[in-house]
Amino acid sequence: MSEVGRVAAKRRKLGNPLALAVLATLWQKPMHPYEIAQTLRRQGKDTSTKINYGSLYTVVQNLQKHGFVEVTDVQRQGNRPERTIYGLTSAGREEMTEWMSDLVAVPAREYPIFETALSLMGVLHPDEVTRLLEERLKSLEVQAASGRGALEKLYESLPRIFLVETEYQLHMVEAQAEWVRGLLLELKDGSLPGVKEWRTLHETGEIPPEFQDFPQDMDDRADLADRVDLEGRDTEK
């Protein structure tokens, strides 16, 4: 297994992306949890990471428990409660670097909910799927147009290095829209292989003969999925 694969296979003590966001924020300078939350929000990290600000204190405590952050100062201003300042430890800096390297270098298998819906869409009539995909495409096109306009505006005031995750989000929306557009075309003109049998299934309630021989073929498909491994493990060429 490659070095990258070994890093990817490592089981981390903390796997919450918010923990990584906290480590990266403390890499800038020591902060108290409230300041960490303000910084994450101000820098727009809540658009690329699912952040539950209510659990941020717990995340910081868990990072401290595992030796990744430590108390560097305790401040008090007037009658305000004490503020505990946390900073990265050497172990925390190493964990952050390894974790980031893993995420940037190794494609990970993710499970988007839309992918789940696509895998199960056979339970709906193809005409209904067509209608729903048309609805989705309209939303994607609006989202892409809005995102493109906002990104162009941001280019005027921010270096591109601070906008790469926004670029990625926009490209994913545009790519999905393009794919949905192509699938819709095949559904509408009937050129999607299997759509005729799919329609027959819903209109007669009987499984078409063409679909009855698929169990073995689906096993082969699963074998192929194992070969196209996106989790960073070595695969058979």
From TrEMBL:
Organism taxonomic ancestry: Bacteria, Bacillati, Actinomycetota, Actinomycetes, Kitasatosporales
Organism name: Streptomyces vastus
Domain (Transcription regulator PadR N-terminal): residue spans on this chain: 22-98
One Pfam family from the record: PadR
InterPro entries named among the record's database cross-references: Metal_resp_DNA-bind_regulator (IPR052509), Tscrpt_reg_PadR_N (IPR005149), WH-like_DNA-bd_sf (IPR036388), WH_DNA-bd_sf (IPR036390)
Name by which UniProt lists this protein: PadR family transcriptional regulator
